[in-house]
Amino acid sequence: MRRTCALALLGALSHGTIAASDSLPRGVGPEFARFYTGKATFACIANPSITLESSQINDNSCDCPDGSDEPGTSACSHIDPLSPEQPLPGSLTGTTNTSNALPGFWCANAGHIGNYVPFMYVNDGVCDYELCCDGSDEFARVGGVQCENRCDAIGKEHRRLEEERRQSKERSAKRRRTLVKEARELRRRVEARVIALKDEIKDLEIKKGELQTKFDEVERSERNRVVKVEGEGGKIGVLAGLAKARVAELRGALDKVLDQRDDLQDRVNQLEEILTKFKEEYNPNFNDEGVKAAVKSYEDYAAGKTAEKKSDLADTDIAEMMKEDGEASGINWAEFEGSDAGDVDVVYNWEAYLPRPVSDFVRDKINDLRVWAIANGILADSPKGTSESRLVTAARAALDAAKDDLSSKASSLEEQRRDLEKDYGSDDIFRALKGKCISGDVGEYEYELCWNDRTMQKSKKGHGNTNMGNFVRIDKELADEQERADGKSLGKGERIVLRYENGQGCWNGPNRRTDVWLVCAEADELWRVSESEKCVYKMEVGTPAACEDVHHQPGVRAKDEL
Ligand code: MAN
Q1: Closest Cα to atom 11 of ligand 1
Q2: pLDDT in tens, 375-420
Q3: Nearest-CA residue for atom 3 of ligand 1
Q4: 310 part of a folded domain
Q5: Structural domain span for residue 10
Q6: Closest atom, ligand 1, to C-alpha of 508
Q7: How far is CA 88 from CA 10, 14, 361, 523, in A?
Q8: pLDDT of residue 332
Q9: Taking every annotated instance into account, which residue ranges of this chain make up the domain MRH (predicted)?
């Protein structure tokens, strides 16, 4: 614990490599030198009204309330050290009555980096090499402890690691520049696609207009043509079929009427025979008035019948009519039914006898007239259920194809335009990562991050995959985490955070979401995944996309990018 606090404090208080001069009292850091030199007496730094003899400095007795008279001993270590957040001397407004005016014991660390060590570490019998590699904090050799000066070796190793870090940073920055170049190229392609699509759409609009005109013309001219019924010989064929059926019906009815007529004629003949016999054989001497009147009526009937005109329609004529189709006087329906010669041919045959320009002119005029008549409801339009001509079908297909092409190109243009407006981060950097994924094993799951797309939790036990959120936007947030030895930590400072939301619903909870925190690294790597709240995930990811370009100033292009 003691070490942790000290490290934090001292990390913040490293001030370069200047070692204190020999004439300074032990433990005085370079920033405080002016308070200890060129004066006969010493004034406490935060309480200058209190003056002390020079001999009282580092006499192992804490005389100043701010501890400034003991820069090189632990005598004032009970006073809280100067907080790293407080300003250093020059203005001492930050010091309070209860805090030490000095941040610690100054360890010059020649050959490495000078550093402040907490006063309580001074002469505590422990060599604090990581803070004070020259061992000067253990000058009293408490308990016989003698700390050798290891600054050369430690300094060398430190410089080696620093150089490694610098080179890594350089490589990361280079990788980032490559990504920027790729992103720029991808953007250029989208822009080129937008231009190309605009041109294609313009051409297609013209083509669509032409095809529409053509279709209207074809439809207009074809509309009034006699249209065939599928599988039949056309309108005339249909008419012939209907007429044939009707004639057959009438012929049947006539046949029955003729039979009834013949029956009735037989009965009339029998009755006439009876009455003739009655007239010849009755006795007129009986003077029966009723019988006389009946005989008279029959004589009148018989006289009238003789004068009756013969019917215009002879039985022979009727017999002729009753003959079946195809016979001498019948109708040859086959000529009309299912004839290969279409009605259109019949209708248009006359054109063959006219010179071409005349036939075109006449046909157009007739067509115009028929179209006008159809449009005004005088003539019926093509009946439903009839097939349209191949010409109209082809014109319609060409027009529909152009319309489809146009609408798919228009939506593709819209999509590309929207893409250009999307936020892909500074320098459009995430455009270069779009479509790529990285993954890492954490516990019972494999986690996957697909840039600009989604995050995924994949069960290693075969329980399926769970969407942890879909990419929504790029944000920034402040990280405040301890550095890790391997460098794979969020550390402190502003970090890019990618928000993924609306993932798979959590049982009894909201939809899953993920915050993806990015830290500069040489390669894309998923470091850690945590679930702070149920179904709220945090991914920590190293990527060159999050690096600063060391050679790159905003608005200025690096040489190799041009
Ligand atoms: C699964 C995983 C966990 C999550 C629970 C919630 O087990 O997605 O991360 O916490 O479901 O029920």
Answers
A1: 506
A2: 566 665 555 555 677 788 888 999 999 999 999 999 999 999 999 9
A3: 535
A4: no
A5: 1-149
A6: 12
A7: 14, 12, 105, 39
A8: 65
A9: 435-549
